[in-house]
Write a structure and sequence with these properties.
CATH topology: Rossmann fold
Radius of gyration: 15 Å
Distance between the termini: 27 Å
Number of helices: 6
Pfam family, one: Ser_hydrolase
Number of strands: 7
Largest sheet: 7 strands, parallel
Structural class: alpha/beta
Order of helices and strands: EHEHEHEHEHEHE
Helix content: 25-40%
InterPro entries: AB_hydrolase_fold (IPR029058), RBBP9/YdeN (IPR010662)
CATH architecture: 3-Layer(aba) Sandwich
Protein name: Alpha/beta hydrolase
GO molecular function: hydrolase activity
Number of domains: 1
Length: 199
Amino acid sequence: MTPVLILPGLFGSENTHWQTAWLQDHPESRLVEQDNWDNPHLMTWRAKLEATLEDAGEAYIVAHSLGCLLAASLAGRSSVARVRGALLVAPCDLPATDRLHPGRIAFGTMPTAELPFPSMVIGSLNDHYMSLDRLTLFARLWGSELHNAGLAGHINVASGYGRWPGGYRIFEKLKARTHHLDKIPTKRPLLGRASSSAW
């Protein structure tokens, strides 16, 4: 069974977070542990992710907030070939995040390259870490399918997301698409430009 790598954001994911429940509910999933959750540094975090990908051989990614930017930062790197697909939940916007948590994050600028693996972005109408306009922009730039979760905040514990069965269903749709692409006897294409759909 293909491993699923769980990528939390700033401060990690607490015990009641949906990512923690995901680890409990899916034995094939594993947390990409970072040494410093409170002061993320892109190169350090990415080195941990790439080492975990190399150990896994290939994997899916399920990311939240800053973890989505970590996954997107793999574009253009050799390690990206090991990613089967990614579920990117409530990606944060670096300028907004820096205003909320000044000086904590050293992640450079927002990744803008198209992702060479199938991806779905899940966002909301009222996320203080990413406006809807910016969410739509980056989903398009990344070549991701965009799902609008409505008034779901940052899709975290504070907005009522503990165990999240709906996320499991969306992830199964992502996996089904990667399996479909595997049957095409050519290089796997991208899912295409972002398209908004009801959640």
